[in-house]
Amino acid sequence: MSNNLTVAVIGCGAFSLHFMPLFKAHPLVHKVYVCDRLRERADACAQKFGVEVIASFEEALQRRDLNAIAIFTQRHLHGPQALAALAAGKHVYSAVPMASEVEQCQQIVELVRKSGLTYMMGETCYYYPSAMFCRETCRAGIFGKFVYGEAQYHHDIGFFSQNFRDDLRSAGIPPFYYPTHSTAMLLSAVDSYALKVVAFGYEDQEDDQFFKRGVNQWDNVFSNSYSMMKLANGGIARINECRRIGYKAPSSYVSSCYGTEGGYQFNNAQHLLTVKTPTGVTLTDVSARVNPVAMTENSHDPEFKQKVANHQWQWDSFAPIQQAEADRLPPSFKAPGMLNGHMASHQLLVDDFCQAAASGTLPPINAWEAARWTIPGLIAHKSVLRDGEVLPVPDCGAAPKT
Description:
Number of strands: 15
CATH superfamily of the domain at 126-359: Dihydrodipicolinate Reductase, domain 2
CATH class of the domain at 126-359: Alpha Beta
Distance between the termini: 18 Å
CATH architecture of the domain at 126-359: 2-Layer Sandwich
Largest sheet: 9 strands, mixed
Radius of gyration: 21 Å
Order of helices and strands: EHEHEHEHEHEHEHHHEEEEEEEHHHHHHE
Low-confidence stretches: none
Shape: globular
CATH topology of the domain at 126-359: Dihydrodipicolinate Reductase, domain 2
Strand order of the largest sheet: 14-13-12-11-7-10-9-8-15
Structural class: alpha/beta
């Protein structure tokens, strides 16, 4: 493979700034452009990272020298923009969510199937240590048959960026329209997908206008939503998406994963594995393997638990369970000062996309997986609106074998 990718990063907000240096530094990327509807923001980004500006998303789609689009725009724009990029013959990396409509998810899958183009959803939590530990343990058969698990994304709106909160039309997005920070971890761990979902919502009671009819574009009044999902493997998953909750970090995590032979439990900084024996269970504290190295190094800090709960050591430090993935990263990503983030997932995301797009192989978070993690949330919100009606979850099927 050669450096045959030319990438246009669409959207120059705070989140995309963490990814532009990674795309630029990847050995399979020849050139990076940036684009934003606010030209001054695109210009500032281009100057900071030494890249060129493309005037519009439409121009990026028309450029024949450009073969990949990285979408970092507002959440409800991802689906339409991914569809447009795929229709224009571009590989697509999209920040989460995949889309805000079931039909758009289905159309993305179909376009990828027909075109052979690469689509990857940039779900950070797929690479989170708790998700990786549960995947590894489940695949090793240690849990036995999966029976029940819990995952959640608890992110109070007060901890979102000011720019996000200033946009009242978009800030009140239904929690389950942004579901994959919770679904991805558990569903990938147990290698299954949702068949049915039932969900209820917490109707917001605050006066700050985020979750109010006539204010946000969805007329959404629910700041928190809670679901139960019946999975194809026979197990049950409890999935939460909460935006008005007195908790900061870890905001996205698997809190439990149980099988017929063993289980995993997590709270704040402690990760426990239990395995059945003829007389009881063995309990092993696996925290040092699952927590970021920087967290473990500071475990004797008198304020350790308080600092963990306030999101220290959970950004760019790899955990030991991530090390095999970290070892395969290109040398350019290991240079001093190279950015990473969200439990050290950013570098893994960019490398997986670039490797897949350049080689024509399926990335781990391909269109089929992205649909299986996104659609259950969209259906869950319908259940919320119907006061807990049990609804079937459409399935796009499994990714083709390559």
